[in-house]
Queue: 3 jobs
Job 1
Amino acid sequence: MINLNIFYPLSYGYMNAKVSALKAKLLAPSFYNEASNVSTVDGLIDLLTKTPYKRYIDAYVPYYSGVELIDISAAKRLSMLIRLIRKSIPKSDLGIYDKFISRWDILSLKAFMSKKHENFDEVEPYIIEGSVSLSTYKRMFKEKDMIKCLRLHPVGRVITELRLSDIPEGFRNVLLELMKTGNRTAYFSMLMDYLMLSNLIELSKAGGSFKLTASILKGIVEVKALITAERANERNMKFDASMFGLNTEQIKKKWFKMLDVKEGESLFSVEQRAYKLIADRARKLMPLTIMRLDKATLFLLLLEYEVTNLHRIGVAKELNISKKDVEVLLL
């Protein structure tokens, strides 16, 4: 029998080299130190023009400013790198890579549906091209009927084919209430939330060359379930995570112990520390991802954290939030 493992480096070699080069261009801790010390959003934008974000800022600065310019530039860089990396993924892992990047397809579809009444030039900057090209969104924009529009998008097609009977009761009850209001945009938005969580849960159980990323996604799912349940409790409501095979009491015990949560500590503080712990774990796992799909997917998660950090620093500058308080918000 032929040992296929000897061809493993041949399959992943190009992707490994490509992602290693891109990882070197992630913003360094020294950038965040400088960013914390600038006093305005314009100062932060000026710092970013000395980084790989320059080309995107230059492209959008005639039309946008402030935090919006930072957000759009970061989203477009993320979009370009998602597609660039996809070209180097071995065919054997392309399916799971596309399922992983569908998180951005879902977010972009939500942004598109919420802004569809505007002209396309106002919608386009908010679209991150995952496995769905910009040309598809252009075709969707021309379609006046919402259902026909959604069916042009792979995620939208799945959503239109979902039957209420296939959806767990907790989500189904909310959807039925939304149906009564006649707000179709809100209804489909909730379906997208359901699909996002379902995809995350499915991916968190994956193995093979994706298992390190899967462990990170498992943590994200657990924190989402924990925070949702705790917020529901604060409103005297009940969130039943068992519909996704999760036990929120066990999750709470695990995470509260890991984070050493104190009596009376705010839920916001717990959530921030939990996500920071997840981000730190992703950074520690990245060096272990030689010649495997995790190399690409963990890089994209780190890039997503970078995009989040830039947004938070930008907002902090606009609101004159102190440097100490900003540091708490960074992942």
Note: The chain has three domains: 17-89+293-331, 90-203, 214-284.
Job 2
Amino acid sequence: MFFRPWVYVLALIVIIALIAVMQPETEGEQLPVIGEIPAFSLVDQDGDRFTLDNVKGNVWLADFIFTTCSGPCPIMTERMGMVQHDLHDIDKLKFVSFTVNPDYDTPEILKKYAQRFDADVGSWSFVTGKYEQIQELIVEGFKMGDVEEIVFHSTRFALVDHEGNLRGYYSGTEPAEHEILTRDIQSLINDIP
């Protein structure tokens, strides 16, 4: 009778261990589809039209920044640059930074900002457009940010698959999620037919 509580504790530990072993590993799980990015028509850092077609067929990572931000935006841009650098050998991967201050962030300003952060604009676009267009895209498409004032933007990266489906959010300021993000990007890349 004296050892009976230990038997229960041992049995509980064995049950918990068995449950943990039987759970599928997160690496093999499919990322959820959070939503679909709607069609949009904006302008990139070169003044060229930028639409969903520019990234369709590619996995892409998006963020929302503005060039005069002295808070999280430079950190986010540096982190995006790290991801781009680490995965530079993947052909079907694009990066898109949307400005949340389109009244100031013209294509010329965005181009200088991209140069300041040594962004490879071959696969990384910095885009602007009308305030209302960007506001609608952030709220309806990416489901992030402040509905009333887009300059109060999210500090998360949004991961989008090759079909334009939103698949995940990741911290744009914390390095801890870097490995998870790159693993999930690789997983989506492997899903491209």
Note: The longest strand covers residues 59-65.
Job 3
Amino acid sequence: MDWLQLVLLIAAGLWGGALNAVAGGGTFFTFPVLIFCGLPPILANSTNKFGMWAGSFASIGGYWSEIKPQKHRLLLLSIIAGIGSIGGSVLLLMTSPEFFKALVPWLMLCATLLFAFGNRIVRAIHARTAHHAAAGKAGRAGGLGGQFAIGIYGGFFGAGIGILLMALYELMGIRNIHQMNGLKVLVATVVNALSVLTFIITGMIVWPVALALGLGFFIGGYYGAVFAKRLPALWIRGFIIVYSLSVTCYFFVFGL
């Protein structure tokens, strides 16, 4: 890794961490950067998880006051998501490099569409369940299974996981947006932490790259929102969608 790549990785982490703190979508920037730096797709994915964990961990402090009152649901959701994350990480390790390479453009496309239309999905779920007690009870019952499934996806790939978690918590009947964000940040941190631990044990982390990216993610996750909030969130989301669609099209046409 030369100095240019080092600067690029730290800058990508800074930008990705700041985006995750404000609008989400940081993985759409950092994962392609790792690919373009020459990492094979599976190694790029597992190494990127370290940066994602560093950024989400840095964001916990900002939501701690919203996280503390939810101890009754935090432990259970975190355990279920963590078990799913380990399962998804093991599934990734069992996937052949050729298959995952062919799968990446489709994962990027699905994650981009989820990011683009995620807010509409959350609003639709809220509109359907807000005034229906039966739906709320069913949502809470199905929420544990949904949390496990999202944990698997988070361990396997993870782009767009924040939108999935927000939609799930709407379905479970949580209406306070700050509590939802607090849950999302903490559960995502657990998912990423156990995924990273799995990859560390199996030797799937490229450490010089991971540390540079993680440094950027941590600083970006902690301080980036201060600067990013000066821009309209709609502009940021639009830029992320255009960029991620462009990268996805590139992967479809030219491969990884």
Note: Residues 3-254 form one domain.
